């Protein structure tokens, strides 16, 4: 693959479908983990937390409302960091931000597993919110198809759109590919949630370590691409950025 090829013809490793499927599995895992083991808060996305925040305000429970500002603020910080860091990282090092982020995520997950169950839930919540926000903002398109790797709402919407388009144009390869991908993302998200909720019964906080397996697979593949297969494409920016 040559750097002279147009950006349209190139899909980087961080844009491959299997990378997004693994990340979506991890996203579902995180959501079920924080809700089951770390305080009943969804840290992979923030819509539910905003609803709970507004309910607490409506009920006059001011301290309860402030509690939800913790994960929401952490998520906001994560999106800001993931917007600021990719450029400087790519210019200074022969490593993409996408790869570095997964390495950071692995380290965070490893450390979270050592936190005692008696520790304040906010520690895990802030950490998971940060990495979920950065993951969502970093991995945006899978082979040109806009994707979210930490929540389901958009995939469900896109699946509905694709189904209608498929009935209208049954021979469309693009529509079929989009429909299949969004369906697969929903399925793996549920699988991640099922696994996390099951394991939390037996391993509690240490359940988070199971996420290290898919994260390690992703990290090795991205690192190999950065250092070997895609060295000549180092200046290319993933689609959607």
Automatic annotation (TrEMBL):
Keyword field contains Membrane: yes
Statement: the UniProt record of this protein carries the keyword Nucleotide-binding: no
Keywords recorded for this protein, A-Z: Membrane, Transmembrane, Transmembrane helix
Transmembrane stretches, start-end: 20-42, 62-85, 97-115, 179-200, 207-225
InterPro entries for this protein: DUF1275
Domain of life: Bacteria
PANTHER family reported in the protein's UniProt record: SLR0142 PROTEIN, UPF0700 TRANSMEMBRANE PROTEIN YOAK
Protein name per Swiss-Prot or TrEMBL: DUF1275 family protein
Organism: Faecalibaculum rodentium
Classification lineage: Bacteria, Bacillati, Bacillota, Erysipelotrichia, Erysipelotrichales
């Amino acid at each position: 693959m040559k750097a002279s090829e147009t950006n349209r013809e190139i899909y980087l490793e961080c844009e491959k479908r299997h990378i997004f499927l693994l990340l979506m599995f991890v996203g579902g895992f995180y959501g079920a983990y924080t809700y089951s083991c770390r305080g009943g808060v969804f840290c992979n996305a923030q819509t539910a937390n905003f609803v709970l925040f507004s309910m607490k305000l409506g009920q006059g429970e001011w301290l309860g409302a402030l509690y939800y500002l913790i994960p929401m603020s952490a998520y906001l910080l994560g999106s800001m960091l993931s917007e600021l860091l990719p450029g400087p990282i790519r210019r200074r090092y022969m490593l993409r931000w996408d790869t570095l982020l997964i390495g950071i995520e692995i380290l965070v997950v490893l450390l979270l597993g050592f936190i005692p169950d008696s520790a304040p839930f906010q520690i895990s919540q802030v950490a998971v919110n940060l990495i979920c926000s950065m993951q969502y903002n970093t991995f945006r398109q899978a082979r040109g198809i806009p994707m979210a790797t930490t929540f389901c709402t958009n995939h469900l919407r896109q699946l509905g759109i694709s189904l209608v388009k498929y009935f209208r144009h049954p021979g469309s390869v693009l529509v079929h590919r989009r429909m299949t991908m969004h369906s697969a993302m929903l399925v793996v998200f549920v699988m991640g949630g099922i696994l996390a909720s099951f394991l939390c019964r037996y391993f509690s906080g240490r359940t988070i370590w199971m996420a290290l397996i898919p994260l390690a697979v992703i990290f090795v593949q991205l690192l190999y691409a950065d250092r070997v297969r895609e060295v000549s494409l180092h200046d290319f920016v993933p689609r959607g950025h």
